[in-house]
Design a protein that fits this description.
SH3 type barrels; 19 helices; disordered N terminus; five-stranded antiparallel sheet; rod-shaped; alpha+beta
Length: 666
């Protein structure tokens, strides 16, 4: 192609010839003559082409190509001047808003800077393409050569864009790699030179030389690849330690355990992975140049973009999840526990989101490297079905989780004594715990059925099977069902609270444990009785609302009942003055009067109203006070008497009973 381009001329173009150029080409001819024997016909063809160009003295096309390259570089540099000011403003904005926006703002600013670099490249390419359209190059064959030059310029520009994405010597706050400005500028220049050398060498020089000398083009390509590879390894060795330290520091800051482990592993083996990749690219450039190398480089650039975008999204998700969801103030006031529930579930949602993101990144990389045609599969019926099923299952799961969090937060809010509702009673605790379990079972069942339906599974037989199984369980567990149903109604009737003293199923004791199926009673001896609700016919609760001490006090028949009642009132007054038992007395002394004329006593019944559960303590204290008052007043409290019978004769006379009183002697 080179021979044809420079052998053909256009009459309207003036040839340009100089003695210096001719002498230079003559020197190149002599130098390349030594290669002709090694390269065979390729070297001779190249010498013939150069000789033909020297004889024609037609260098207008070459000059215009040089001018085209100069215009491209000039436009790029001119566009970079205002772009640099924009980058500096972005850097200042990031530094000023770092505390407010954090890494998210930094990532957005980084994307903005990369966009500025991309716009400068696009502007220069647009100018070069416009010059080609207006016929600036001239020859038809020269247009093809100019296309090669423009393609090489684009490849070099993309390589520069990737280098700037990591180094960015103009900004300290946006630079990804942990290098200072001087080091970043130093390595930026070195990598730029390598990119320029490799880009123009492989994308322009080698294709042009290959048209007339494939063997020489292969040699040039080998030299370019080797020099570039050595330069890349030199840069990698220099930045290996700071990059590894930076990756470890980033791993300590991330909130995702999976991402943290991946970054730590990358800090250890990242250098060797990149080294293997560089060697593989070099081998591709040597053994399979052209389309294969273009594919590898474009796929590599796309992979870098995918990794950077995925990392940004992962970091943004981690930061957003770590910050949590802030509910509106009215909802926080109504459901104060919901905010904590959301924060507790955020790490799990973060792991799920990172897993989904990882799957998406892997799928994109598979498609980019053409391991499998992911886009075609997603466009197929099977792909659409699978994607719809996955989205449906995730949506159902998130909706079920939201419903459960709302219901559980409301229930826990009702059970929590620190949220303004006070300590809930045993009835509320039992019923709310039952409702929480029932809601959980309902949500899991419905969500599972809907998820199976989204996966394309017919849930009709499952529902029918569940009904049959439920019926069988109902017949086999009638006693259990009876316990639960009776317990529910007992709780709805608010018959029993925890710590109540009751009688149920013929057993009296303090309610120590209360469930939906049974209750635990601790009697006075310390024995714990577990009573199923199905055996409870009547519940006698002695500690509900209030209680009464009901006492009967027997006095001798000779005592005046009015005096007895008066002294019982004195005893009640003294009881009310005795702390701390007086706090449990809530009503006056109720004297019911004489309740019975017993064998040896006249019984007087009284009642004292007390707080719930304190009637026995008040009764014991009142009995003590009554005994003290009766003793002080000389009121006899009768006790059992014994009569000795010595018998009698037929006349009714009893024999004499001789009683002798003796005195104890020491």
């Amino acid at each position: 192609m080179l021979v044809t381009i420079y052998a053909q001329g256009i009459d309207s173009m003036d040839p340009v010839s100089t003695t210096g150029i001719a002498q230079t080409l003559t020197h190149w001819q002599s130098a390349l003559a030594d290669w002709s024997n090694r390269l065979g016909g390729d070297g001779q063809a190249l010498l013939n082409a150069l000789g033909q160009m020297t004889q024609m003295n037609d260098w207008l096309g070459v000059v215009r190509l040089v001018v085209l390259f100069a215009v491209l570089e000039l436009v790029r540099r001119q566009l970079w001047r205002p772009a640099r000011r924009g980058v500096e403003r972005i850097d200042q904005s990031v530094a000023a808003s770092q505390a407010r926006f954090g890494s998210v703002g930094q990532a957005l600013a980084w994307l903005a800077v990369i966009g500025v670099h991309a716009l400068t490249l696009l502007g220069a390419v647009a100018v070069g393409y416009a010059l080609m359209l207006v016929g600036f190059v001239g020859y038809e064959q020269a247009q093809q050569l100019a296309g090669e030059l423009l393609s090489a310029f684009i490849w070099v520009g993309v390589a520069r864009l990737i280098i700037e994405a990591f180094l960015e010597p103009a900004t300290d706050s946006i630079r990804l790699l942990p290098l200072d400005e001087a080091a970043a500028l130093n390595w930026d220049r070195k990598l730029m030179r390598l990119a320029t050398f490799a880009g123009y060498g492989l994308a322009f020089v080698v294709p042009v030389v290959a048209t007339v000398g494939p063997a020489l083009a292969t040699l040039i390509e080998l030299l370019v690849v080797l020099v570039t590879t050595v330069g890349v390894f030199a840069v990698m060795r220099a930045v290996r330690t700071p990059v590894s330290a930076w990756l470890r520091a980033v791993a300590e800051r991330v909130h995702s355990g999976l991402l943290r482990s991946a970054l730590k592993l990358l800090a250890i083996i990242g250098y060797w992975l990149v080294a293997v990749y560089v060697v593989m690219v070099a081998m591709v450039a040597i053994l399979a140049p052209g389309t294969t190398l273009t594919f590898v480089l474009s796929a590599s650039a796309a992979s870098v973009g995918v990794f950077l975008l995925g990392g940004f999204v992962a970091q943004w998700l981690a930061r957003a999840m770590h910050a949590g969801v802030v509910l509106p103030v009215p909802m926080q006031q109504r459901l104060p526990i919901l905010q904590n529930q959301l924060r507790r579930w955020m790490p799990r949602l973060l792991k799920l989101s990172h897993t989904v993101l990882g799957v998406v990144v892997i799928a994109v990389l598979i498609d980019v490297w053409q391991i499998a045609d992911v886009r075609a599969w997603l466009g197929s019926t099977a792909g659409q079905t699978m994607l719809s099923a996955v989205i449906g299952v995730l949506s159902v799961g998130l909706l079920a989780l939201g419903a459960w969090l709302f219901a559980a937060s409301w229930i826990e809010d009702q059970l929590n004594p620190d949220t303004g509702h006070g300590e809930p009673g045993a009835r509320e605790k039992t019923l709310l715990a039952l409702f929480r379990n029932a809601i959980a079972i309902a949500i899991v069942t419905i969500a599972g059925m809907v998820a199976l339906s989204e996966l394309g599974i017919d849930i009709g037989p499952l529902i029918a099977g569940a009904g049959v199984i439920g019926l069988a369980i109902g017949f086999g567990a009638q006693k259990l069902v009876q316990d639960i149903i009776t317990g529910v109604f007992i709780q709805l009737e608010d018959a029993i609270h925890q710590d109540d003293y009751i009688t149920a199923g013929g057993i009296s004791g303090t309610v120590e444990r209360l469930s939906i199926r049974s209750l635990g009673l601790r009697d006075l001896t310390g024995t714990l009785h577990v009573v199923p609700f199905s055996s409870v016919d009547t519940v006698s609760n002695y500690t509900r609302d209030f209680g009464y001490h009901l006492g009967e006090y027997g006095v001798a028949y000779r005592e005046n009942i009015g005096d007895v009642v008066e002294h019982l009132q004195v005893a009640y007054t003294r009881l009310c003055e005795t702390a701390p038992i007086n706090a449990s007395v809530t009503g006056p002394l109720e004297v019911d009067g004489v309740s019975a004329l017993a064998d040896s006593a006249v019984n007087v019944r009284v009642r004292i109203r007390t707080t719930a559960g304190m009637q026995w303590a008040v009764g014991r204290a009142y009995n003590q006070v009554v005994k003290e008052v009766f003793d002080e007043a000389g009121i006899e409290i009768p006790f059992p008497h014994m009569t000795l019978y010595f018998g009698e004769d037929k006349l009714g006379n009893a024999p004499p009973a001789h009683i002798a009183l003796g005195k104890e002697t020491d």
